[in-house]
Amino acid sequence: MSEQTGAVAIEARAASRFYTMGEATVRAVEDVSFHINRGEFAALLGPSGSGKSTLLNLLAGLDRLTAGSIVVAGRDLSTMDSEALARYRRLTVGMIFQSFNLVPTMTLADNIELPLRFAETARAGRRDRVMELLTNVGLSHRAGHKPTELSGGEQQRAAIARALANNPSVLLADEPTGNLDSRNGQEVMTLLRDLNQKMGVTVLMVTHDPSLAERYARKSLHMADGRLVSTVEAAQ
Ligand SMILES: Nc1ncnc2c1ncn2[C@@H]1O[C@H](COP(=O)(O)OP(=O)(O)O)[C@@H](O)[C@H]1O
Ligand SMILES: [Mg+2]
Fold it and tell me: Cα(223) to centroid of ligand 1, in Å?
């Protein structure tokens, strides 16, 4: 992986994100502290509206803390300027979403090449890297297809390949199987587990399905009303 920064991949210390809505304050994430070790597969659980996506967006550098700090791969996000944060989003973390978020007008190969272009990877090596990434997720035969020509499971696998393009040390997944039937969902979960085990990428997955967390995650963080209410570690 790109960073070697000790045993802890993600650390949140009293992390809070409040939104001001007119007179009201929405405490989306409040005073959350936890850590996730390097190479771990962790789940973030909680009912709708409990703050899971807000927390994941903070970890992804897509949103800013109101208070507290978050350190990922040795980098303290709360002290980064917007340029450093953009670089962090490009290189240190990969993110996947419930709705895949592939560009519909582009082929899979072009979708996966995008983050390489943004990171200004030399053009000469890009196509080989794209094919390697597609092969890793079992989609090398689909390189020239558009997202709509693929099943939901295939689209999510392509989104995973795109998220891993710049070799991030952490993969953040927001309800990655939320739009998939059980067979496609299982395929995506198996892929995430394989990538975690074979490549050592740290995975933090949001889900509201406790059975998924039980099957795949070693550590489960449970949120309610913006707060972390319990942390459960499975026996190894
Ligand atoms: N940009 C925003 N502005 C105002 N309130 C928000 C914003 N984003 C999320 N919230 C509120 O924060 C709370 C947590 O939302 P969210 O993190 O999306 O929960 P979850 O992902 O667990 O369903 C909710 O009450 C939601 O309405
Ligand atoms: Mg959410």
Answer: 13
Q: Is residue 71 part of a domain?
A: no
Asked whether the whole model's pTM tops 0.90, one would answer: yes
Q: Measure the CA–CA gap between 161 and 159, rounded to whole angstroms.
A: 5
Residue 22 lies in a domain: no
Q: Is 97 in the pocket of ligand 1 (CB under 6 A)?
A: no
Instruction: Give me the domain span that covers residue 169.
Output: 39-65+80-233
Indicate which ligand has the atom closest to the C-alpha of 52. Answer: 1
Q: What is the pLDDT along the chain (236 residues), one digit of tens a residue?
A: 444 457 999 999 999 999 999 999 999 999 999 999 999 999 999 999 999 999 999 999 999 999 999 999 999 999 999 999 999 999 999 999 999 999 999 999 999 999 999 998 888 899 999 999 999 999 999 999 999 999 999 999 999 999 999 999 999 999 999 999 999 999 999 999 999 999 999 999 999 889 999 999 999 999 999 999 999 998 76
* 189 assigned to some structural domain: yes
Helix axis angle, 123-136 to 108-118, nearest 10° = 130
What is the number of domains present in the chain? 1
CATH of the domain at 119: 3.40.50.300
Q: Please state, in angstroms and rounded to a whole number, the distance separating the CA atoms of residues 85 and 88.
A: 5
Q: Is the CB of 20 under 6 A from ligand 1?
A: no
- Please check whether residue 225 lies inside any domain of the structure: yes
Angle at which helix 152-163 crosses helix 108-118, to 10 degrees, equals 20
